[in-house]
Design goal:
single chain, alpha+beta, Aminopeptidase, 7-stranded mixed sheet, 7 strands, globular, binds coenzyme A, GNAT family N-acetyltransferase, GNAT_dom
């Protein structure tokens, strides 16, 4: 599938939220049960508190979106300026075609260019192989608690070599 990458903007947040809910309940559901998916990504309209929280985090992140040829949002990701991968979601109709890999690659490139020494990802079961292929090492498993529901993920790290000035 042909996609183009573009910078993620604040105005993209509502579309990203819709994609996030869809991705978790469809792709995430392959590895997590219904209660976990519901706690991870509550369905329905994005609450204002979430909208504000996402905007605040995106304002201190490198953000990228993937667009299909007809302009549809195929995926998005952002990486906080402290080196933490905060978001990585791909639309179910675009999954398994390398979109997630492209998004991660673009953000690793940005962080490396900015001089970050190390990246961290709290990778879902579904995203762990992708991060491994991108050079991340699994440190240990981890539990996130949402609404009393435990959601497992993996703490992963990647050291960045840095780029020599040209
Ligand atoms: C995890 C997620 C982001 C992966 O996105 P994706 O675009 O499907 O990822 P990719 O296509 O790059 O890689 C997924 C698989 O497709 C395969 N693939 C990659 N490029 C491909 C291509 N061009 N053609 C066919 N298959 C391809 C990969 O081998 C990979 O397989 P594996 O991960 O089982 O080893 C997506 O499934 C998602 O949004 N999941 C729900 C939410 C979630 O878990 N988010 C991550 C939070 S850390």
């Amino acid at each position: 599938m042909k996609i183009t990458l573009d910078t993620l903007a604040d105005a993209d947040i509502p579309a990203c939220h819709a994609l996030f809910v869809d991705a978790v309940h469809t792709l995430g559901r392959r590895h997590y049960n219904e209660a976990q998916c519901a706690a991870w990504a509550p369905s329905g309209t994005m609450p204002d508190s979430w909208r504000d929280g996402w905007a605040k985090r995106l304002s201190r992140a490198w953000g990228v979106k993937a667009l299909s040829e007809d302009g549809r949002l195929a995926g998005f990701a952002w990486l906080l300026s402290d080196g933490e991968f905060d978001m990585l979601f791909v639309a179910p109709w675009a999954a398994g075609q390398g979109v997630g890999t492209r998004l991660v690659g673009a953000l690793v490139y940005e962080a490396d260019a900015a001089g970050l020494a190390e990246l961290t990802a709290y990778a879902s079961h579904g995203a762990r192989p992708l991060f491994e292929r991108a050079g991340f090492t699994t440190l240990r498993d981890n539990l996130v608690w949402r609404d009393g529901v435990a959601i497992e993920n993996w703490i992963m790290k990647k050291a960045l070599p840095g780029r020599e000035a040209t």
